[in-house]
Amino acid sequence: MGRFSQPLAHAFADRAEVRAGQRALDVGCGPGALTGVLIERLGIDSVEAVEPSPQFRESVTHRFPGLVVRDGTAEHLPHPDDTFDVALAQLVVHFMTDPVAGIAELARVTRPGGTVGAAVWDLTAGAHGPVSAFHAAVAETQPEWVASQLKPGGAQGDLGRIFRSAGLGQVRESVLTTQVAMASFEDWWEPFLLGAGPAGDYVLGLTEQARDDLRERARRLLPEGAFDLRVDAWCAIATV
To answer: InterPro entries given for it (predicted)?
Structure first.
């Protein structure tokens, strides 16, 4: 997902109006796509990150020496109230055990007048996303599996409802759109063979024949040769 999350991070930081002089928290930082953008704009001393995965914490601290990265989840942030000017969660709401509690925690650690934001891939049928063509190909034979992949925040209006349920009243919802260059269909397809994420697990669980059939169905849905893949993410921004 790195090649998709990196351009999304720039668009997300723009939409949240991240600017010099602020102190920011990256919640669920993963390998640091958004973290790096925040550091570029604010400086490493003005950015902190939270991540429950030891592997990702090790990776992001190696990538950004001196960065404060704490062990924690969105639902239980290890910070006092009113600590940051901006608290952002990119591609994290999908994986929160309790999204409402998670967004409420982002608001708790943000100063009054500060900004809370979240962005998640659009997972609805017919969407433009990193795995939309994959889902469309799978849906031709197993629509029930595709339906099971819709996560919290992944449908239109979901993020706004989560934010309002968390007590945030001034919520601005929008769509973030970026373009990611693909050298070929194989450039798009090969990462699914690595077994990463639900899509990778699905592919590895297929027989060789079923995998080849899925590959050909997906090929018919995408352009020949090099192409730019449009990816959309739902975004919600709120003022505390």
So the answer is: Methyltransf_11, SAM-dependent_MTases_sf
Q: How many helices (H) and strands (E) does the chain have?
A: 10, 7
- d(Cα 107, Cα 80) in Å, to the nearest integer? 11
Decide: residue 211, CB within 10 A, 0-12 exposed, 13-18 middle, 19+ buried: middle
Q: Which tens digits make up the pLDDT trace of 176-190?
A: 999 889 999 999 998
**Residue 128, pLDDT above cutoff 90:** no
pTM, to two decimals: 0.89
146, 85 contact by CB (below 8 A): no
* 81, pLDDT greater than 90: yes
First vs last C-alpha separation in the chain: 30
The residue extents of the domains of the chain are 2-239
CATH top-level class of 2-239 = alpha beta
Q: Which two tokens stand for residue 65?
A: 């020496």
Q: Is 25 helix (H, G, I), strand (E, B) or coil?
A: strand
What is the rounded average pLDDT of the residues 221-236? 92
* Residue 105 identity (one-letter amino acid): E
**How many CB atoms are closer than 10 A to CB 223?**
12
Token readout for 117 is: 């934001």
Distance of alpha carbon 188 from alpha carbon 12, whole angstroms: 23
